[in-house]
Amino acid sequence: MSLNIHRRVLRRAVFSQIAALLMMAGCAGGGPETLDLSPQVPALGKARKTRHSISSLVVSTPTWLDVNLGSGDDGTVVRPSGYTLYDDRGHKLKYVRNYLGALDSEPTTLELEPGRYLILLEKPERHPPIFWVAVEPGKLTEVNLLK
Question: What is the DSSP letter of 141?
């Protein structure tokens, strides 16, 4: 195996251990109040200009099937999974459910101050459970984990 493959395997193992520890700590519903910052956390996302010049973030997360058993005839909806947003020091800012209302199936767009943020995914699947994003002044930062 090449050195790059060994690094990828090691990185996945580290991320898996971090995710397991966070879940054992009882953070599945929104993450802990603070996270230890690791130098191995990757940076994801691309910024692009928008007409409105508002600094914002949208994270297209892995989806899940909501069968809407508690609501009337709304039917089954595929929804984006949630995540927890942290500041650049690892302090929890908020949990983002990542959809609005009973019929919404699109990820939530957050208006944020420019800066660096840490994201902890609720359902990482094959993606890193924790990653950095940079929100630039007047730009929309997009992270697409559906590809």
Answer: E
Closest CA to 30 of 85, 109, 99: 85
d(C-alpha 85, C-alpha 57), whole Å: 11
Per residue in 118-129, pLDDT tens?
Answer: 999 999 989 999
pTM score, two decimals?
0.74
Structural domain range at position 117: 3-144
Contacts of 36 (CB under 8 A, 6+ apart): 90
Q: How far apart are CA 59 and CA 82, in angstroms?
A: 9
**Whether the Cβ atoms of residue 90 and residue 38 lie closer than 8 Å to each other:** no
Residue with tokens 């209302």: 101
pLDDT value, residue 3: 54
Name the token pair of 143: 């992270």
Q: Are the beta carbons of 98 and 8 closer than 8 angstroms?
A: no
The answer to whether 119 touches 133, Cβ cutoff 8 Å, is yes
Residue found under tokens 């927890």: 84
User: Tens digits of per-residue pLDDT, 42-94?
Assistant: 999 999 998 888 999 999 999 888 887 666 666 788 889 999 999 999 999 99
* Structural domains counted in the chain: 1
